[in-house]
Specification:
Four copies of one chain form a homotetramer. By secondary structure, chain A is of the alpha/beta class. Chain A is about 30% helix and about 30% strand. The interface between B and C is large, with 46 and 45 residues.
């Protein structure tokens, strides 16, 4: 039974999920959002921002590996990586697994998220913040992207949902995507989580369209994240090639050569993810 | 909206209440129960034991005054008081308002509840634990009552519900009530909270019957406690008289003479509470 | 346990109640609102409008008697009664208990509510719609009040909450209350339900203030309605006298003389309700 | 927002899902279970048994195609098919798409489920019950399987979860699986839905082990079903071959030759489903 402290989180507009909490770890109202870190019965430790599970101990690798590796593998030689959001440090952790990476910049607006994650989410970042190649910048991602003159091989957007809080929404616009394009090297790749296309099909398609207007190659796939209550969509966009063109063997070869060990994503799984429809209602011909 | 961390608590067998949490204060799995102290949007700070709100900052005075003052006023000269449960210290606080009181013993099974309450629920106990007249005993209330040879003028049961966790249920049996009777002075009074007679009419009536079998005078009334989601029932039983026999003026005189200041209970309100039916379905002729 | 179909209803801004449904009776999207009639485990049959329980089989008498009888008893000789809202017919039923009543007009905007209530809520109306003294008008209460030239002894507002849907809000304004005043006979009385003053203290006080600006005598009280999850506030306003001036005996005498039998309200209970503070946080000195 | 009538359904032991209901269609307490058919905001029409969504209009094809086609495609020439459970008729509908099928027997214990589905879930069965090749038997699946002397090419178990109500649990035991084995032709195939291996890893592994003890070839895969709140596991077991041995092209060829049109499952998708780990915590090395 689930009486007691629970997380009540939105899945769709008219669907919610209740997750039983076992113990309270930390809680802070930051300048930007309500931050809660709790221990749950079925997902281990969980980071919750404004009432939405960002990631959980038992399934964060599904999410972070799905977000990072397809983009990192697609690029021929990822050396300079920009992470927007991702204050838990787990996206940074996955990026730093690549021995090709010489510099990884993480830009998160909320210092408190980073601080509390460093303190309470050690199994997420695993020391990533202390890696000499990493730099953690506390700043609005939009402002950072507008002012930087640096160029990147890969940019990873690890933000709240495209249909979520206002603050992140402006990072999903076509004009912002164009700005990312201009920051990328000629063989650059960008990846983003994109919420759930089943519950927000229109918002998802709009975002996909924006990427397609700006980038020549755009791939999409989704991974079920149990603690989200849905299969999370991801979009990978590139200037020079599609994931579809990489064989299972080539993906595994690149991971191996770059020194990357994974728990979920590999050549076989990534090709499979790309083969499964991403469940947005209209694509499936389902009545809305 | 109420997305985010919430308390999900039982109201009846088939009714629940969701209460939005604003921040996490403390959380511990004790030897006996899950203890959570949280700050909520609509009730201020709240103590939650095994998923049930025990009392909240904004309405605890309705509960604790309804539990303590009728019994304390009914007794001609309450000097020795025993509180079973009530680890928050608020029942003790109300008892110690009486300048007639020379000794007040609080017996709570869970040291962690007392410890966390002392630390985080200052507006509940307001120093009651440090009053020289008070003694806090950490022990199973049943064991204490069985071993003590002390006699008391007033005994107050501030436990979980009669139909709640097993550990408290044995303190609501007829044989236990007889034991309390034997501990009371000849003009002794006992009072207890009794959960909700609307949602648990049979359990409530059984308890009321048990008191009636043991005590000559038994009064009942209920007070709406917003954070419980229901009007909480109370039973006051006495060897020598009923609350019905006290006039409004006499109640106010006794409170005044004994130096007691209250926020909710006074002569007028107590007489009114006694006049209103206590909502158990059968009494009201309501179909079940 | 409560898995399965449930009513999820708001109690406050940040508190909700889950009520387990046993069976579905009827359901319609009317021109104005979503209407659901369901059978529940703990409240019997329930009428739900836009997700809020309007009344339930097991506790509707607490609500309807608290709404109707204080006003009807306060008036020296209620002959002409106007009910705004109240499409279930239970308010009309209580009004028609008075043999003094010669004409009772019920004005509800939603024909479907009236139709479904007639069909499925027989224990609510109990034939009230067929009483020769009764007239059911399907019209916006505001429009009716503005166009009618009739005068009434008692007006009863049985609407959704003052802080609820827009459509009813305009019937809680000072200017509307002034219009009601002008429709009332010289000894006229108006009564209204007023939602919950604990959870919406500001909105409640605004409404109370509006009545006080218009009427010389204004009484307030509250009754716990289990299926609402709170004690519901009521306001009774009169041109010529206060409920405070009626003795318990006088109330009982008037009920008796007028041929009224009740299950909840009588002289003793009504005087008690008036004696208990109505729990709005500020009055009680509770921190907000 | 989701206030109003909702389905509250279990996802795991400590996780639940709230699904907003738009309208009530039908509701019956049958001899075996509570049956509710409702229209929802985000899933269209939904069949709910004992508080659990069985299938929804917008995503039932993901479920039913995942359950039926892998098994039907694996068999070289499926002519005689037995469906246990599946009273909605959608599993039968998918089975009857195969022109190889000469006889399809559906055995459901609950006549009321079949009756209400025929009346209100036309888009599920689409006339399957009227197909001359189909026979609907109202009987306990266990009793049917024990008494029949017929042999089948494919058996499909479309029951409540292996860790769900007692009545279905006895159909997931090793001895029952052995009985199914004995009913199957020499090249027979059985498939079953298996609940969620993420939330019930032990129960899932036990079931998988039982199949492995009885059958030489056992495949597993999972498909996210939005209205379940999780990716649903499926197990396909065969006497003579594994799905792993079928190429994408061979799967598509068999579907085409047998006259089967699908919306979700095809060679590419089925091979992909088989390639993705099925998320049970221990396999993934996730702490429990």
């Amino acid at each position: 039974m689930s009486l007691g402290i629970n997380i009540l989180q939105a899945i769709g507009r008219y669907s919610q999920m209740l997750i039983k909490v076992k113990g309270l770890v930390a809680s802070k109202r930051s300048k930007y959002q309500q931050i809660d870190i709790v221990d749950t019965e079925e997902f281990g430790r969980v980071l919750v921002l404004d009432g939405l599970v960002q990631s959980s101990e038992y399934d964060e690798h599904y999410y972070h590996e799905s977000l990072v590796h397809p983009a990192m593998v697609l690029h021929p030689n990822p050396e300079r990586v920009l992470v927007l959001g991702g204050g838990e440090g787990a996206t940074l952790r996955e990026v730093l697994k690549y021995r090709t990476v010489r510099r990884a910049v993480m830009v998160d607006i909320d210092e408190d998220v980073v601080q509390l994650s460093r303190q309470y989410l050690a199994s997420w970042h695993r020391g990533a913040f202390d890696d000499k190649r990493a730099e953690a910048v506390i700043e609005d991602g939009k402002a950072y992207v507008e002012r930087t003159t640096e160029r990147f091989d890969v940019i990873i957007m690890d933000l709240t949902d495209p249909y979520g809080p206002e603050i992140a929404r402006q990072l999903y616009t076509e004009s912002f995507i164009r700005r990312l394009y201009s920051l990328l090297a000629d063989d650059g790749v960008v990846s983003t989580q994109a919420g759930t296309s089943f519950f927000f099909p229109d918002e998802y398609r709009d975002l996909l369209e924006s990427f397609r207007k700006v980038f020549r190659y755009v791939d999409e796939y989704s991974t079920w994240i149990p603690s989200f209550g849905y299969a999370c969509n991801f979009i990978v966009a590139s200037k020079v090639g599609s994931l579809a063109a990489l064989s299972e063997e080539e993906i595994d070869r690149r991971l191996r050569e770059r020194g990357v060990e994974t728990r979920f994503i590999n050549g076989r799984v990534l090709k499979a993810l790309l083969a499964i429809p991403t469940y947005y209602k209209a694509t499936q011909g389902t009545p809305r």
